[in-house]
Write a structure and sequence with these properties.
3 helices; alpha+beta
């Protein structure tokens, strides 16, 4: 009975992800990577990313593509405890911090951006 519960739970999880626009490919022998993008990745891009991640981790990789407009562009990969963040939102945030640090260095304390 327990085996069926696990299978039903896994299948239900796939259905929920699919209805939310997440591409799901399940294989327990593969490493799983959750990949955030602004738009769904096409098949060729998924294949290329899987190959690059396989080179990184040394095993086949299963992609779960999550659509997240908040990253603005680029890609964020969650693979186990590793996060590879190449998103536009993070780059703009880092640039904002560097500009603020440089202004502070040049002119003294400068109010942080985004504060009211």
């Amino acid at each position: 009975m327990e085996r069926w519960r696990k299978k039903i739970a896994r299948e239900y999880g796939q259905l929920v992800k699919t209805t939310r626009g997440v591409t799901v490919k399940i294989d327990q022998s593969k490493a799983r990577a959750r990949v955030k993008t602004v738009v769904p990745m096409d098949e060729e891009t998924q294949v290329q990313l899987c190959a690059a991640l396989k080179d990184l981790v040394g095993t086949e990789v299963e992609l779960i593509n999550v659509i997240d407009p908040s990253i603005l562009g680029g890609i964020v990969v969650h693979l186990g405890d590793t996060i590879i963040d190449m998103s536009l939102a993070t780059r703009l945030n880092d640039l904002d911090k560097r500009i603020h640090q440089e202004l502070t260095r040049q002119f003294g304390e400068v109010p942080a951006t985004g504060s009211a």
